Amino acid sequence: MKKIVVIGGGPAGLLSAIEASKYDVDVLVLESKKEIGITEHCAGLLSIEGLEKIGLNKLPSEIIQNKEIIGAKIFSANGTELVVEKNSNHALVVDRSKFNRYLASIAHDNGIEIRTNSRVKNIHRKSENIELVLGKQAKESRITTKVSILAEGRFPKLNSQVGLSNPDEIIFASQFIIDGIENLDKRYVELYQISKYAPGFFGWIIPIDNSVAKVGIGTRYRPAKKYLRNFINSELLKERFYSAKILREMSGAIPLGSYINRSYTDNILVVGDAAGQTKPTTGGGVILGGIAARIAGEIAAKAIIEENYKKSFLKQYEKRWKKEFARNLFIMKLVRQYLDSLDDKDIDNLLKIFNKPKYKQIFTSKGDVDNQQAIVWKLLTKLELWPFFMKTGLKFIFKKNKW
Ligand SMILES: Cc1cc2nc3c(=O)[nH]c(=O)nc-3n(C[C@H](O)[C@H](O)[C@H](O)COP(=O)(O)OP(=O)(O)OC[C@H]3O[C@@H](n4cnc5c(N)ncnc54)[C@H](O)[C@@H]3O)c2cc1C
């Protein structure tokens, strides 16, 4: 019997497996697809600080598509631009398929077995253990384990089978890799907070170089691809995309509202998108899910060492990841809800205000891709902003409950 079985070979699953293996326990990863990293439904924008937190200080150069990102250009519907930047590069754009395969290679080097073509269809408790029932293509039809880490990603099927909930809010996303974009500066990510093109979220252009970028939108409505085409053909962008060519298309979804009520039960821990561990402001989940995954791997290994698989022991996983970033998620969720409640004119006014040097200075000094708490608190101390916040606050309170 394998001691720990991780279900899902995405970043959260692989990082939890890698962490657990450091405690010299048997770990098996089951992945439903025929290869690790087979679909790339991600922009791959990762902060350097965040990568350090998940133990990936130095990524191999072949994974990195752009290491020169120093800031972001934020645009409103009528073209007002706010540039937020740091003095040095602080984020990387990675090839997500290669990134996943790199994590799998570390797992392999740590002695972890990864079985592809192994979809777990059902999960149930069998006396003190957990029994997994696998799909037809898998090597074995049933596997028994002491601890299982559920890392199925955005649409988990197994959480409910063990009495846990699923992330309740989903953003639909579509992204094209496009070549031949005019006026692209590989040092800046472009963000478009425009309700017409990306209702309930935003559009992005994440440069790979000065001509090729990952261009995408997230929205609460479907089909996201239709919104993305409208975005690219919009008055704001169409000239820059006149001779552009779509190299690849991908679609996906991002759990955004909030993390699940409880991320553990007897013999079980849930990590990554399956637990709703994503940033409500941007949808990024690799770093936060990765931080939680490392904690899950450690606690799962300790459960094996101490032979204690009870939820009373495993709950320390949730306590620890919540201590790391639950407060940050709460603030970021309010920011996302506030931004969604603003109309395009409000966003335009907000960007105009933030263009003043004193606010740009706040963004430069307090800006953090993974944690926007510090900026929020600082901005709330600025009395000059309160008339705007009060004017728009009513809309926020009114719309908030709809989310
Ligand atoms: C368009 C888009 C852009 C994004 N951009 C960014 C970004 O720039 N930065 C960022 O940090 N995040 C980004 N994200 C979010 C990021 O992709 C996710 O947060 C991240 O991949 C979550 O990792 P995970 O391991 O939890 O899930 P996943 O990456 O979804 O991995 C889950 C794995 O489990 C496997 N699986 C599922 N069910 C089973 C089963 N029953 N049995 C066996 N295997 C199973 C799946 O095949 C999959 O390989 C983006 C998402 C989208 C959609």
Describe this structure in a few short sentences.
By secondary structure, the chain is of the alpha/beta class. 34% of the residues lie in helices and 25% in strands. It has three domains: 181 residues, FAD/NAD(P)-binding domain; 104 residues, D-Amino Acid Oxidase, subunit A, domain 2 (D-Amino Acid Oxidase, Chain A, domain 2, 2-Layer Sandwich), CATH 3.30.9; 68 residues, no CATH class.
Number of strands: 18
Order of helices and strands: EHEEHEEEEHEEEEEEEEHEEEHHHHHH
Query: Which CATH class of the largest domain applies here?
Result: Alpha Beta
- Chain-averaged pLDDT: 92
Distance between the termini: 44 Å
State the low-pLDDT regions, or none. none
CATH homolog superfamily of the largest domain: FAD/NAD(P)-binding domain
The biggest sheet amounts to: 8 strands, mixed
Bound ligands, named by name, code or SMILES: flavin-adenine dinucleotide
Shape, please? Answer: globular
Task: Provide the gyration radius in Å.
Answer: 22 Å
Count of DSSP-assigned helices: 10
CATH topology of the largest domain, what is it called?
FAD/NAD(P)-binding domain
Q: How large a portion of the residues is in β-strands, by DSSP E? A: 25-35%
In the CATH hierarchy, the architecture of the largest domain is 3-Layer(bba) Sandwich
Oligomer: single chain
Protein structure class: alpha/beta
Helix content: 25-40%
Any idea how many domains?
3
Organism: Candidatus Heimdallarchaeum aukensis
GO molecular function: FAD binding; oxidoreductase activity, acting on the CH-CH group of donors, NAD or NADP as acceptor
Domain FAD-binding: 3-319
Protein name: NAD(P)/FAD-dependent oxidoreductase
